[in-house]
Amino acid sequence: MNFSPKKMVAGAVLVIVALGLFLVIKPDNSKDTDSGSQRPPAATTGAPGTTPTVPGKKKRPAPPRGPIAPVVEVKGGQPVGGVQKLDVNEGDDVRFTVKSDVDEEVHVHGFDVSKPVGPGKPARFDFEAGFTGIFEVELENSAVPIIELQVNP
Amino acid sequence: MISIPFGHALVSRGDLPIPPWLFAWGAAVVLIVSFFALASAWRKPRLEDPEYRPIVPRFSSIVNSRVAQVLFGAIGLALFVLVIHAGLAGTEAPDRNFSLTFVFVTVWLGFPVVSVLLGNVFPAFSPWRAIGRTAGWILRRILGVNVRHLAYPERLGKWPAAAGLVAFVWLEIIYGATGAAVTLSPDVVVQATIAYSVYTLAMMALFGVDKWNSRGEFFSVYFGMFASLSPFENVEGKLQRRRWLSGATSWAAVPGSLAVVVASIGVTTFDGAQEGTLKAPIEWLQERIGDLGFAATISVRAGDTVFLLVTIGFVALIYLLGVRGMTRVASAPSFSVLRSRFAHTLIPIALAYLVAHYFSLFVFQEQAQFTYLLSDPLGSGANLFGTANSGIDYTLIGPELVWYVQVGVLVAGHVTGLVLAHDRAVLIWSDYRLAARSQYWMLVVMLCFTSLGLFLLSVANQ
Lengths: 153, 462
Fold this sequence. Notes:
The complex is a heterodimer.
Chain A: H1 5-25, E1 71-75, E2 78-79, E3 84-89, E4 93-100, E5 104-108, E6 113-117, E7 123-128, E8 133-139, E9 144-152
Chain B: E1 13-14, H1 20-39, E2 53-54, H2 57-63, H3 66-89, H4 98-118, H5 122-125, H6 127-142, H7 159-175, H8 186-207, H9 209-215, H10 218-227, E3 232-235, E4 238-241, H11 257-273, H12 279-291, H13 296-326, H14 335-341, H15 347-370, H16 372-375, H17 399-428, H18 432-456
Antiparallel strand pairs in B: 2-4, 3-4
Helix pairs in contact in B: 1-17, 1-18, 3-4, 3-6, 3-8, 4-10, 4-15, 6-8, 7-10, 7-11, 8-9, 11-13, 11-15, 12-13, 13-18, 15-17, 17-18
């Protein structure tokens, strides 16, 4: 192609400057993590100390002033207040409880954790967010999504 | 906002949106390369009428031998039979059944990339082509029937393929993933496959195998579109090399080609927007349709369908406005001529959208394809190759790599589209200044598509 030397140099300089700036200004994800991002959905409460750990994992003590594990309620097969959002950072414990007035199976996609839930038998989840992405938590039998779990780097 | 809807039943993980800082960088790089492209342009077309040079003669004669052709066809046919068998006899859990991942991920997302790198390899494995050619051979050689085909109505061009493409994606992301209680089951995939096979074989019988393959069989047309970017082609029974991208210059000569490439961009755009920007409007429309007294499933699908078509129309509109602009340049050909003569410049955009949206999904789902879906294709507890218990390693690629690939392919698609458009412009306008002026319009078109692509993957599309 007919790039004149001058234009080639100009283009190369632009690209190098842009790359350099990129490396300098690019935010460092490992430092600017938002520690308070595990927000419980409004109008729900939960008991923090009572969540059991996932079987097979080493027991870890409940954090003394940790965020309150959110509770998602399912009524008539639908999540109350629509699909709830759950934001955590990679490596955090994901803790939440699902209560349901019908018998169902709660399935966390990606992490592939499943627990039965039913009237008087809430499903309590506690697992480590080992990788990033956006994952659906759904009622397996009816394929109704109830939580959107976002794991940030 | 989740990009999960793509065969939601299959996919467990959605990509994190591109963060604002990287979005800004992507946009800045696009602008820089655009101005660079404007400033430094060649004045004679370099991609038209490509020269072909035969390569690897021995390998070429092996893959083009009758034995190899039959073997490739048999492999394609065997996989086709496995898809049907797994769909009928296998588990109804979509993510544990070989069929869905194979059709919607391995084939649908794999062949475009393979085609760009290696050339048009799909026809060799096409089960319908294999059946059609075998049937023709039996009729001619064994039964001595003189097969005569109808003349294909050339005005139809590739429109049947465009329709097939939209129907396929409709099945996958609208019929298959419309929220509560509707999922794409292997059962449905088998029924659709059988229906499509009957239709395809009938059309091949009417118009001839090769004719229908190049016009109506949408897998062949779609993968062939990406293969036109490739430096390799099998011409007259010999593997030949040509300049990268040069094959694309003749791709859009047939009517309906524009529809195929616009539909390809449109369906990916819809998939990216339906859970983000378009979520509220789609839900609004679905409720209105529900108010008319239609069942929930019908109103969900109808609302999605309307917006899928609107999105495809929107993509067409961006391109056609750019073409309309080019007609204002002095000594420009007519609108309809320009419209088809620049259609091929959108192929790199279609490829960039595809890779940007489905790169991570492909990487993760192929782990399933080659581990437990291979060892246990029916989900029946078999363990043919000892890999039935492996899973998907979601730590294989991190979010940053995914973001860089997404931004990188969008920028690359942008540049490649501009290169093709510029090369076409200097062919059409012998006056270089007029050619350059026409390219302001194509630059706007490409900028629109690249910004739209970035936007769809960004935090803003939540």
